[in-house]
Amino acid sequence: MLKKNIVKIILDISMAITFVLLMNPRVFNGLPFHEVAGLVIGVAVLVHIGLNYQWVVHTVKKIFDRSFSGKTRFSFLLNVLLLLSMTGIIVTGILISKVVFPHLLGGENHALREIHDVFSKLTLLLVGVHIALHWQWIMGVFRKMLKTKEGKWRKGAVVAFVFVLAMFIGSMQWLATNVKPDEAFQPKFEQKVAQASGTFSPPEKFRERRHEEHHGNSHPLLVILGHFTFWAVVIVAVYYIEKRMRHKRQVRV
User: Fold this and answer.
1) For 147, phi and psi rounded to 5 degrees?
2) CB 58 within 8 A of CB 14
3) Cα(178)–Cα(235) distance, integer angstroms
4) CB contact at 8 A, 181 and 26
5) Can you state the angle between helices 110-133 and 70-95, rounded to 10 degrees?
6) pLDDT in tens, 197-224
7) How many Å apart are CA 10 and CA 207, to the nearest integer?
8) Which key words are in the record (predicted)?
9) Contact by Cβ (8 Å): 215, 26
10) Domain locations in the chain?
11) 128 with 230: CB under 8 angstroms?
12) pTM
């Protein structure tokens, strides 16, 4: 069971990191990474559902059972909403694709792009709530991974965890330094501006400022930190709301 939970944790962390990197389409080499990673995370979602297949089947069968807690019902509803929002992201992403499926619409579609952004932001919030509801389980798995039954630290596991974390941070920094956005996929508006400007091109600082206004800083570590901070706020808020509701139920009983 622990090995299966470790696989789930690794998959979930990988999905979370990939998803927040997708929130900024300028990360790494821009649209090529954004679109390919988007399809990969779609497959990862199916694997995630497969690993939790028994829970899904059991919950569907017992969803109207009065013995089921409100938290379980809410968690199931949240998962359904997450699946729908992720589906919305993938479908709209495919329709507005410029790299993997460049000829589906054959031009710009600002309405679909706006819908894609709305689904992305909604999913970011829903994922934060999803993590909050499973926070105790996540911490429990990490405790079993890093500590023995007697409560002592597993030195080998701790060293391995620190090593993997250091390697991850180092690789993100290396990629941010050496992998530049592919200018062939820059927005058409910017291409036209560059062509019209001819001999005159805006100062480098101006171009960077214009990009940051639309998508923020594209450094992967900063993108991850920013969105994980948002999730941390959601987790704390949901934790205290759930704790207060649980206290009220105990008082009533």
Assistant:
1) -130, 150
2) no
3) 34
4) yes
5) 150
6) 444 444 544 444 444 445 567 889 999 9
7) 38
8) Membrane, Transmembrane, Transmembrane helix
9) yes
10) 1-146+219-251
11) yes
12) 0.81
